[in-house]
Automatic annotation (TrEMBL):
<keyword id="KW-0560">Oxidoreductase</keyword>
<dbReference type="GO" id="GO:0003955">
    <property type="term" value="F:NAD(P)H dehydrogenase (quinone) activity"/>
</dbReference>
<protein>
    <submittedName>
        <fullName>NAD(P)H dehydrogenase (Quinone)</fullName>
        <ecNumber>1.6.5.2</ecNumber>
    </submittedName>
</protein>
<dbReference type="InterPro" id="IPR052718">
    <property type="entry name" value="NmrA-type_oxidoreductase"/>
</dbReference>
<dbReference type="InterPro" id="IPR016040">
    <property type="entry name" value="NAD(P)-bd_dom"/>
</dbReference>
<feature type="domain" description="NAD(P)-binding">
    <location>
        <begin position="7"/>
        <end position="181"/>
    </location>
</feature>
<dbReference type="InterPro" id="IPR036291">
    <property type="entry name" value="NAD(P)-bd_dom_sf"/>
</dbReference>
<dbReference type="Pfam" id="PF13460">
    <property type="entry name" value="NAD_binding_10"/>
</dbReference>
Length: 281
């Protein structure tokens, strides 16, 4: 069985490949990347795979049985990029696609959801056996916020008391490996999230505890939060997107207590304390 991983040089892709090598021989793993030379340190075969150059895709999938499609990082371009990948997978005769989607992509109010749901529908229409990993928030998504809080003495956001069932990137990587290397996952949709949800106030309190400083959470109006981000150098469109996500987080968009992720990986997900410790560095 040959397994190929898209976005192999990205943070999630690298983790998946490293962990997958503990389950399978390296010659059964293929790293797919826009710049294969950047995958030289992964210890597996690497092939060029550029979402924006569809002519590179089908050939790169030759001989591949299972494809892990890690969603593109380019919000706004995912539909065209993922459509090209699914078409190439059909042409190459891929036996299964595992796709990293978004928590409750079919009902989520987050603006991110539409591109993920579009991709899920494409895969379903392709007739290729599938597994959807609907990943919740990564604790690492708050890396910049934590560094900003350490620099300025306060954690800011617009998520109010919204509870966030985040997990570490390594937790989601373990889930991908469990599905890629395991059996009986075809046709399954997994809603994946951390075991213990936290608010941004909880995050600030844990940051305060670990640093010995008083770092409060300041809940801002969405427009004020976007303005603060823009003032810190975040491009305005992305700042507005982040603020919009916080509005939905406040309504529960990232809360989940199903514990599917910890059951799938056979261990508890990373705690808030350990997650913050890693973010502090």
């Amino acid at each position: 069985m040959t397994i190929a991983i898209t976005g192999a040089t990205g943070q999630l892709g690298r983790l998946v490949i490293d962990k997958l090598k503990g389950k399978l021989p390296a010659d059964q793993i293929v790293a797919l990347a826009r710049s294969p030379e950047k995958a030289a340190d992964l210890g597996v075969a690497a092939r060029i795979f550029d979402y924006d150059r569809p002519e590179t895709l089908s050939a790169a999938l030759a001989g591949v049985d299972t494809l892990l499609l890690i969603s593109s990082s380019e919000v706004g371009k995912r539909e065209a990029q993922h459509a090209a990948v699914v078409e190439a997978a059909k042409q190459a005769g891929i036996g299964r696609i595992v796709y990293t989607s978004l928590l409750r992509a079919d009902t989520s109010a987050l603006s991110l959801a539409s591109e993920h749901l579009f991709t899920e529908k494409l895969i379903l229409a392709s007739g290729i056996p599938y597994t959807f990993l609907r990943n919740g928030w990564y604790v690492e998504n708050y890396a910049a916020s934590v560094q900003g809080a350490l620099a300025h003495g306060a954690l800011i956001g617009a998520a109010g008391q919204g509870r966030i069932a985040a997990a570490a990137r390594a937790d989601y990587a373990d889930a991908a490996v469990a599905v890629l290397a395991g059996a009986d996952h075809a046709g399954k949709i997994y809603e994946l999230a951390g075991d213990t949800a936290f608010t941004l106030a909880d995050l600030a309190a844990e940051l305060s505890r670990q640093t010995g400083r008083d770092i409060p959470f300041q809940n801002l109006a969405p427009a004020d939060y976007a303005a603060a981000l823009t003032g810190a150098g975040v491009p305005a469109p992305f700042a507005e997107m982040l603020a919009g996500w916080d509005v939905e987080i406040a309504k529960g968009a990232l809360f989940d207590d199903g514990h599917t992720l910890s059951r799938l990986i056979g261990r508890p997900t990373v705690s808030l304390a350990d997650g913050v410790k890693a973010l502090i560095g």
